[in-house]
Amino acid sequence: MSNYKLITDSTSDLPANLVEELDVHVIPMHYTIDDKDYLNTPDERDLSAHDFYEMLRSGKTSTTTQINGETFKDEVRPFLNDGMDILHLCFSSGLSSTYNSIRIATEDLKEEYPDRKIIIVDSLSASMGEGLLVYHAAMRKKQGMSIDEVASWLEDNKLHLAHWFTVDDLNHLKRGGRVSGTAAFVGTMLNIKPVMHVDDEGHLIPLEKVRGRRKSLEELVAHMEKTAINPAEQTIFISHGDAPEDAKYVEKLVRERMGVKTVYINAIGPVIGTHSGPGTVALFFLATQRL
Predict the structure, then answer these.
(1) CATH 3.30.1180.10 residue window(s) in the chain
(2) Where in the chain is the domain with CATH 3.40.50.10170?
(3) Helices vs strands, H then E, count in the chain
(4) Which of 85, 185, 257, 266 could in theory staple to 117 by disulfide, Cβ–Cβ 3.0 to 4.6 A?
(5) Taking the chain (291 residues) in consecutive chunks of 10 residues, what is each chunk's mean pLDDT?
(6) CA distance 220 to 227
(7) CATH code, residues 160-286
(8) How many whole angstroms separate alpha carbon 245 and alpha carbon 290?
(9) How far apart are CA 180 and CA 182, in angstroms?
(10) CB of 123 within 8 A of CB of 200?
(11) Residue 18 in contact with residue 135, Cβ under 8 Å?
(12) Which pTM value belongs to this model?
């Protein structure tokens, strides 16, 4: 059985220590603030997540760039040259054209490396939802599963990866076209917080409106209680837009209500954070269904 490398995009928002532990290669994505380009990397070498969100809070705007085909080729060639196959878990095609660019680049690489296997999986996921799929893939690789077996598991289970989000500032959703200007204004005035999820096509969908921050965080956990598969035995991921105390509150609830033992918390990186904004909190787990 050929050795293979697990690869993902930095939109998976995995912490640097977990990237090393899982032996995963993360392809950084670019973002731009005030005409200065930065790399979104797990080790935050260009700009910390906290500093990024402080810049957003001060009124600065960020724009993001997808991974293009040539970048993908440059990132994976070293592994192919070492005789390794590639299993790449990609950012949702419902949120970015990155998947399509990588898929096209893969066809070129297959001609260049006809003896190597290159499998691309559209995660239909984002942030640590994508990261949790990577985690499960890495665990199965460590257990001895082949590249085909892990890829098959991902395809069979990715729509069981539930994403539940809430945001603190509706204006970032307004800029991204998720809510209207009027809805953002009225919602802000009334302290309305949307509860959203990622659907089976990998799109971010506003689902509910609740009044108050604490209630919106509790609603994330309520959805987990309804659909989680054996939650006490799961590893749960929580990500946040520079809101660590709120993330810890969600952790406290899932531990108390469902007996969850293993939780990883990390900041939402700048590429996702550009669109979700400061104060976002997201909860990820395996469920009977995404909704």
Answers:
(1) 160-286
(2) 4-158
(3) 11, 13
(4) 85
(5) 91 98 97 96 97 95 94 98 98 95 97 97 98 98 97 98 87 54 44 87 88 94 98 98 98 98 98 92 98 89
(6) 11
(7) 3.30.1180.10
(8) 26
(9) 5
(10) no
(11) yes
(12) 0.94
